[in-house]
Specification:
Elements (H helix, E strand, L loop, with lengths): L10 E2 L8 H4 L11 H21 L23 H4 L4 E3 L8 H6 L6 E5 L37 H13 L3 E6 L2 H8 L9 E4 L14 H8 L6 E9 L7 H17 L23 E8 L11 E3 L6 H10 L2 E4 L8 H8 L4 E4 L4 H4 L6 E4 L4 H13 L1 H18 L2 H16 L1
Length: 422
């Protein structure tokens, strides 16, 4: 997954740049010589962009989901004579490309392949809409900005995208069918746009199952408890669902307490097939940036911090008995795929691309979105049944080998490249 709050992006095939947003938008890209008229138009644009930013985004809380404008303060041209590529393959270009100047610098005859990692390419600025469907009509009155209005920044950005993409040969690729269906509903794409689905691919030699006890030993975890894993680049991102995971563990704790000498049934009691008194000890295994303030509601927690090493990730996934992906809205979160590649079953909400690889009862368990009791019941069910965990873990690894292998992804892109240039 190309994470939305890490400012690194790719421009593949042309091999133009790989750097931060400030570098990508900087002066190292040659800019065409400007006439007096061009300078006047640029000044008008600057005033408009500053006005929209100051009015709708400048005071937006940084804890909110990422929101990005289609126009930037500086133009970002591709130096086309130097690039001269057969295909321009885009990934996450927010804060990287100024739509008007960037797409204008790509000849109309050159196919643009665009792998989407969230919704931003076809909305007025949001990266996940939270169920809002205004992007289907051109946005405006955006619920994610300050002072929403009919002609707000979301409306302006949506119109800019539609205008700059209408003369292009667009090939849109989405890792999840969920994201693909949403993309098709947006009017930013011209009618001849092609839509394709290609799963993320993982190097399954790198992400592979390791011995569970040896993995725990290397992580410094001396425990025979059931380890429930959770990971995200930023665990405080509300969309990633840490609040709901905390709520699920609180429900487990309350339910266990109520079962000690009490016959009162709870919602969780009704969804598990064995008495909760036989539930083994549960501990948490967490990685990602950010700190949790509600530690008292969680079981004993092993915090790994921010992890960007595949070797460390592999140990964490293998050490866990099950992994939880409680995102409220997501494309195809890679943390779940990586866990499955390491033979660990996944519990999550029935939303977005998660339900496309967490196959309920086969590679993991699903609960309805925001259903903390259902999430708790799924955690309990897998915690109680070692054989079921192992069975689902094996099936998860098989699914990864059949559908999410890196070579499979590569071949599908090569086939699409050939089709686009033929």
């Amino acid at each position: 997954e190309q994470p939305t709050d890490r400012r690194f992006h790719q421009l593949q095939f042309a091999s133009l740049a790989s750097g931060s947003a400030s570098q990508a938008a900087g002066s190292h890209l040659p800019k065409p010589r400007s006439s007096k008229l061009a300078r006047y138009l640029q000044r008008r644009k600057d005033r408009r962009v500053h006005r929209l930013f100051n009015q709708h985004l400048a005071t937006r809380p940084p804890s909110e989901e990422t929101f990005s404008m289609a126009e930037m303060f500086e133009p970002t041209h591709l130096p086309w004579p130097a690039v001269s590529a057969d295909i321009v393959h885009l990934h996450w270009i927010s804060f990287f490309a100024d739509y008007p100047s960037f797409f204008q610098s790509i000849p109309k005859s050159v196919p643009i392949m665009w792998t989407l990692h969230d919704m931003n390419a076809f909305t007025g600025g949001c990266h996940y809409s939270g169920g809002c469907t205004r992007f289907e009509q051109g946005c405006g009155h955006c619920p994610q900005i300050v002072a929403p209005a009919a002609d707000d920044v979301s409306c302006a950005s949506h119109a800019t995208k539609r205008k700059t993409l209408r003369q292009k040969r667009n090939f849109v690729v989405t890792p999840s069918h969920w994201l693909g269906e949403l993309a098709k509903r947006s009017p930013v794409w011209p009618k001849r746009t092609e839509f394709h689905h290609i799963n993320y691919g993982l190097d399954l030699e790198q992400y592979r199952p390791l011995d569970k006890q040896e993995s725990r030993k290397q992580l410094g975890i001396e425990s025979d408890a059931i380890l429930v894993g959770f990971g995200a680049e930023n665990i405080l991102n509300q969309r990633k669902g840490m609040t709901h995971l905390i709520g699920a563990f609180e429900q487990i704790r309350v339910t266990l307490a109520s079962n000690d000498g009490s016959d009162t049934a709870t919602d969780i009691d009704k969804t598990v097939d064995q008495p909760l008194s036989g539930l083994p000890k549960i501990e948490g295994l967490l990685f990602g940036s950010g700190k949790i303030s509600e530690l008292d509601k969680l079981p004993h927690l092993h915090q790994m911090g921010f992890v960007d090493s595949i070797e460390q990730q592999r140990l964490i996934y293998s050490a866990a008995d099950l992994f939880v992906v409680p995102s409220l809205e997501d494309n195809q979160p890679q943390v779940g795929l990586e866990a499955m590649a390491c033979g660990t079953p996944v519990v999550g909400f029935r939303t977005g691309g998660i339900s496309e690889y967490v196959r309920d009862g086969e590679t993991g368990l699903l609960a309805d979105v925001s259903d903390q009791a259902g999430l708790a019941a799924s955690i309990i069910q897998l915690s109680q049944h070692a054989e079921l965990r192992q069975q689902m873990g094996r099936r998860a690894r098989e699914m990864m080998e059949q559908e999410f292998e890196l070579k499979t992804q590569t071949q599908r892109y090569l086939d699409l490249y050939r089709s686009a240039v033929s």
